[in-house]
From TrEMBL, chain A:
InterPro entries: ESCRT-2_cplx_Snf8, Snf8/Vps36, WH-like_DNA-bd_sf, WH_DNA-bd_sf. This is Vacuolar-sorting protein SNF8. Belongs to the SNF8 family. It holds the Pfam family EAP30. Coiled coil: none annotated.
From TrEMBL, chain B:
Transmembrane segments: none annotated. This is Vacuolar protein-sorting-associated protein 25. The gene is VPS25. It comes from Erinaceus europaeus. It comes from the Eukaryota. Pfam families: ESCRT-II. Belongs to the VPS25 family. Keywords: Protein transport, Transport.
Length: 169, 200
C-alpha cells in the first residue's frame, strides 16, 4: 500500500507535522499553497524538491491509511483537511464559495447557491463549531464568517516555537 | 510613540475584534489578546492605562481595518490578564489598571538570578545600581529592572497602596526579601518601584 519508497512516507510525516503545528490557527484546514510553502521551508536547501502534485499523492496515501485527511477542491486549487471535522457536501460547497474573498455571508450563500436562510445558517454555525470559521459582527451589512485557512495574511507566517512543539508526538 | 511594532496576524484578521461564540475559538482569541496587550505595553514601556485610553489606543482599535474591540470585550481581556497575574486594578471602579508584562514573581526571580550570578548576595543595592549599573547591560535590551518613574506627591498615597500589593507578591518570591531592605532607607525609591517601566 505504501510502496514507492521513503520519499512519500517522509513527505507524509512532514505534512502531518505542518498541519499539527498550524491546526490551532486554521482549525485543521489549509490551502495546498500554504502547505506547499511550509513544507518547502521545512525541507531546507539540500532536500529534494517537492511539487504540489507530490503533496497530493502523499496526502492520498495518508487518506488510505485512515488518518482523517481529506482533499477538498475549491476554485481551481485544493483545501486540505487534516482534522476529521464532519464536513458534508453542504459545508464543502460553502468553503468553495468562501475561497474567493476569505469570508462568506448568509446573503452570499442565498444568492449563489439559492438556499433557504436556515440551511445557510446551519452550515455557518457548523463551521464556527468546528473552529474552521470565526465570526465578524463589525462587517458592513451583515455578519461575515471568515476562514483563517483562507486568510492570505496568514500565509507563510513562520511557524512559532510553540506551534512546532505541537507537532511533536 | 509609533515604533515599529510587529502586529501579530490576528490584528489584521477582522473577526479578532468580535468576541467569538465558539468557546474553543474564544480561548485562542483571548490568549492572543493577552499576549498582544503584554507585548504592546512592553514595547511602549507602558505600565498603566485607563480603560478609556485603551478603547482609543491602536491596541484595541485598528483604524485601518475599521474594527475595534468593544469595551465589554476589552473588560474580558483585562480580566483574563488579571487572573494570570499580569494586571491589577488601580481603583474600585475598574477604570484604570497597572499592567505588568513581567509579573512581580518573575522580576523577583530575574533579580535573584542576576544577583547570584554577580556573586553579590547579602549586599544592599540601590535602585540606581539595579537599573543602570554596568553589570546590568548584559541582560538584554531591557535593563534587569525597568527604569523607575518618580511619582508625584498627590499620587503617593495611591502608589503606597499599590506598592504594598505589588511588594507582597514580589516578596512571596523568597529570595527577594533582601530587596525590600534598601527601600526602608530610601523611601522615594520605595514608591517608584511600583510603577517601574513607564517612560523615561
Amino acid at each position: 500500500m505504501l510502496g514507492v519508497g521513503d520519499f512519500y512516507y517522509e513527505l507524509g510525516v512532514q505534512i502531518i507535522e505542518v498541519c499539527l503545528a498550524l491546526k490551532h490557527r486554521n482549525g485543521g484546514l489549509i490551502t495546498l499553497e500554504e502547505l506547499h510553502q511550509q513544507v518547502l521551508k521545512g525541507r531546507g536547501k539540500f532536500a529534494q524538491d517537492v511539487s504540489q502534485d507530490d503533496l497530493i499523492r502523499a496526502i492520498k496515501k495518508l487518506k488510505a491509511l485512515g488518518t482523517g485527511f481529506s482533499i477538498i477542491p475549491v476554485g481551481g486549487t485544493y483545501l486540505i483537511q487534516s482534522v476529521p471535522a464532519e464536513l458534508n457536501m453542504d459545508h464543502t460547497v460553502v468553503l468553495q464559495l468562501a475561497e474567493k474573498s476569505g469570508y462568506v455571508t448568509v446573503s452570499d450563500i442565498k444568492a449563489t447557491l439559492k438556499w433557504e436562510t436556515e440551511r445557510a445558517r446551519q452550515v455557518l454555525e457548523h463551521l464556527l463549531k468546528e473552529g474552521l470559521a470565526w465570526l465578524d459582527l463589525q462587517a458592513p451589512g451583515e455578519a461575515h464568517y471568515w476562514l483563517p485557512a483562507l486568510f492570505t495574511d496568514l500565509y507563510s507566517q513562520e511557524i512559532t516555537a510553540d506551534e512546532a512543539r505541537e507537532a511533536l508526538p | 510613540m509609533a515604533m515599529s511594532f510587529e502586529w501579530p496576524w490576528q490584528y489584521r484578521f477582522p473577526p479578532f475584534f468580535t468576541l467569538q461564540p465558539n468557546m474553543d475559538t474564544r480561548q485562542k482569541q483571548l490568549a492572543a489578546w493577552c499576549s498582544l496587550v503584554l507585548s504592546f505595553c512592553r514595547l511602549h514601556k507602558q505600565s498603566s492605562m485607563t480603560v478609556m485610553e485603551a478603547q482609543e489606543s491602536p491596541l484595541f482599535n485598528n483604524v485601518k481595518l475599521q474594527r475595534k474591540l468593544p469595551v465589554e470585550s476589552i473588560q474580558i481581556v483585562l480580566e483574563e490578564l488579571r487572573k494570570k497575574g499580569n494586571l491589577e486594578w488601580l481603583d474600585k471602579n475598574k477604570s484604570s489598571f497597572l499592567i505588568m508584562w513581567r509579573r512581580p514573581e518573575e522580576w523577583g526571580k530575574l533579580i535573584y538570578q542576576w544577583v547570584s550570578r554577580s556573586g553579590q548576595n547579602n549586599s544592599v543595592f540601590t535602585l540606581y545600581e539595579l537599573t543602570c549599573g554596568e553589570d546590568t547591560e548584559d541582560e538584554g535590551n531591557n535593563a534587569i529592572f525597568p527604569t523607575p518613574t518618580l511619582m508625584s506627591s498627590e499620587s503617593s498615597l495611591q502608589s503606597l497602596f499599590d506598592f504594598q500589593s505589588f511588594s507582597s507578591k514580589f516578596l512571596s518570591c523568597m529570595e527577594c526579601r533582601w530587596f525590600l531592605f534598601c527601600f526602608v532607607f530610601l523611601p522615594e525609591h520605595y514608591l517608584a518601584v511600583a510603577y517601574g517601566g513607564s517612560g523615561d
